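Data deposition worksheet. Section B asks for the primary sequence of the deposited chain exactly as it was used as input, without tags or linkers unless they were present during the calculation. Section C holds the resulting structure in token form. Section D is free text for depositor observations; keep each observation to a single sentence. Incomplete worksheets are returned to the depositor.
Section A, Depositor: J.P.
Section B:
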Amino acid sequence: MKVRTNADRLVRISVMGEVVSPVIARAAYKVTADGRPVVLPGVGGITYNVRVGDLASGWEADHVEPGVSVENKEDDKRFPEGPNAALNIYSCVGNEAVVASGDAKGSKGTVTGKHGGIEHVLVDFPPETLEKLMLQDKILIRAFGVGLKLVDLPEVKIMNTDPRFLEAMSPRIVDGKLEVPVTHIVPASVMGSGLGASQVYSGDYDITLFDEATKKKCGLEDVRLGDLVAIMDADHSFGRIYKQGAVSIGIVAHSDCVIAGHGPGVTTLITSSSGAIVPRIDQKANIANLLQLK
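Section C:
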């Protein structure tokens, strides 16, 4: 059964940010989970050679964000964090992004995820656009997707998802449950940073890859940026909690990490507290394939 949504009732609204610089904390070194001090590229900036569709692990990096990192730095004294919160909460995976200033003005890209803690929205652009972009260039996102619902399956919640991207996933209702394609099934036992967050309309939830036996058993060595993954026994209805039988679907937003409790970050897209989601393995279930970004 094809899914029906309330997409015709959703509001399409503008949010804007700018291409933000990479940042480094006062101490150059990060201490790895096994106690080694390292200096590695991290969040922010324009990442020219890491995009959705590429492996999430194996880079000499920590928390690298694929493509372009966008943040709203508007100074609103009434609500100091308000403009960037709106950018992060209203933006949905699959939304169209348009460069609004600089040499790449008019070029179009696609929102591919959100990164909590640093509160960035991540946008994929073609290589020719990446080469023209500069730090502080303005990026307009036509935000569309907040409030998206499945008409025939109210026990399944949708968030952070453009209706166009949901349609591209080709989900279907089978025996009263939503069948969704994913590349990997991830046990809740390996989920780290992000657990306990009070809402999932921004940010992400990290897959920790430090236990080699679990990584091999679950086939997590080849997780890619932009992959759709199913997290089992994870309920994201009103935050992120462990709950037996619940299922959450998300998209891998940023790279692997060296710090304890961290790893490839997953932005939530679909969740069911009652387990009314059936993940179906499909190695092509990556936004780069589904929206033909590469």
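Section D:
Residues 246 and 275 are 4 Å apart (CA to CA).
The helical segments are 82-90, 127-132, 163-169, 212-217, 287-290.
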